[in-house]
Design goal:
Layout lengths: L4 E2 L2 E2 L7 H19 L3 H7 L5 E2 L7 H15 L4 E10 L2 E9 L12 E10 L2 E11 L2 H11 L10
Parallel strand pairs: 3-7
Antiparallel strand pairs: 1-2, 4-5, 5-6, 6-7
Length: about 160
C-alpha cells in the first residue's frame, strides 16, 4: 500500500490499522488534488461520492463541494492547505491544517485559516464531512463573515 502523503510530506502512524491507513491515503489524495493542485477534473474522475456535508456554506455531494472550492480558487489562485496533524480512528479521519490564500503567507500562523476537518468513510468512500474554521487575520475574518451567513444544506453542524 502506498504511504499517505500530502504536499510532499509523508503522513503515517504505526498505530493505524490497514483500514485507517487506507482512509488517510484516500483523504490525502483528495485534499492534495482539490485544495493544493486545484485539479477538479481529476477529483471527478477518481472520487465517485462525497456524501453528507455539515459545513453550512457548502451543498451536499461532490459537485457542491467542487463548485464551492473552484469559485474560492478562482478568487484566491494561490490558495493552499497545509496539513499539520492527522488523526485516524476507524471510519474517521481528522486533518488539522493551515490554509492560506497567498504564497507569501504559507507558514505564517498569523495569516489564513486554522481548519479542523473531520471525514467519515463508508466502504472506502467519503460519507460525511464536518469542519471547524478559525480565521487568523482580518481579511479572512471578513471573508468568513460574508460566507458564513449562506446556509447551503439542512444537515446541521453536528
Amino acid at each position: 500500500m502506498e504511504k499517505p502523503s500530502i504536499s510532499g510530506h509523508l503522513l503515517e502512524s504505526a498505530s493505524w490499522s490497514e483500514q485507517e491507513t487506507s482512509n488517510v491515503a484516500r483523504m490525502a489524495e483528495f485534499i492534495q488534488l482539490i485544495m493544493n493542485d486545484h485539479d477538479f477534473d481529476t477529483v471527478r474522475e477518481r472520487f465517485r461520492t462525497y456524501g453528507v456535508q455539515h459545513s453550512r456554506a457548502i451543498p451536499d455531494g461532490l459537485e457542491g463541494l467542487l463548485d464551492y472550492v473552484e469559485r474560492f480558487a478562482k478568487t484566491y489562485p494561490e490558495f493552499s492547505y497545509d496539513v499539520k496533524k492527522i488523526i485516524a480512528d476507524g471510519d474517521y479521519v481528522v486533518f488539522h491544517s493551515h490554509a492560506t490564500v497567498k504564497y507569501a503567507h504559507r507558514g505564517n500562523d498569523k495569516k489564513g485559516l486554522n481548519i479542523i476537518d473531520t471525514w467519515r468513510f463508508e466502504d472506502g468512500e467519503i460519507a460525511e464531512h464536518w469542519d471547524a474554521i478559525q480565521a487568523l487575520d482580518f481579511s479572512m475574518r471578513v471573508y468568513a463573515l460574508a460566507a458564513g451567513g449562506k446556509i447551503k444544506n439542512a444537515n446541521g453542524v453536528f
